[in-house]
Amino acid sequence: MSDTITLTGIVGTDPKHLVTTSGLAITSFRLASGQRRYDRATGAWIDGDTNWYTVSTFRHLAYNVSHSVRKGEHVLVTGKLRVRNWENPDRKGTSIEVEADSVGHDLFWCTTNYAKAPIARSTSRDEQGSGAPDPDAPEDTRTEDAGLQNEVEARTDGFLPDDAAGSEIHGLATIDS
């Protein structure tokens, strides 16, 4: 049995992308989902506990997440919740994971400009496999501006303060803070 969950939160780590030897694309990241509540007695918002989740994406979604999502960005995630107990010789604990069906930027915090990603040719969604773009597809024009692309690649920390202005390019979408 699996439970479906929808989360909002902040990407806590830069997404890690890999392709298995069988060609399966996987991208994963940690998501911090904080809880806030309004305290009527003090008239202020109070930060509660933060829940941490490992979010895993597969196939074409993995490719799109690796090119679109960065540490510090607010996202929405929907997927299957997996809670697993683990143990090693030194410690034991519980792992909370989400196998994502969908990931997107939380538009409460930013705006994005949609850009359709190249899709590998196949006869069915399950056969799209690695999520890598089709080498025969038209060349991707999103990276024509070399200066802007270099700026994106040079960025190491995706966190933007609440008062940040301007926009940043993140692979498949333009994010305006």
Question: So what's the overall shape?
Answer: flat
Biggest β-sheet: count, sense, barrel?
5 strands, mixed, barrel
For the record, what CATH class applies?
A: Mainly Beta
Through-space gap between termini: 39 Å
Helix content range: 10-25%
Order of helices and strands: EEEEHEEEHEE
SSE class: mainly beta
CATH architecture: Beta Barrel
Number of helices: 2
C-alpha Rg, in Å? Answer: 18 Å
User: How would you write the strand order of the largest sheet?
Assistant: 1-3-4-6-5
Provide the residue-averaged pLDDT: 74
Low-confidence stretches: 121-174
Question: How many β-strand stretches?
Answer: 9
Number of domains: 1
The CATH homologous superfamily is termed Nucleic acid-binding proteins
Strand content: over 45%
CATH-defined fold name: OB fold (Dihydrolipoamide Acetyltransferase, E2P)
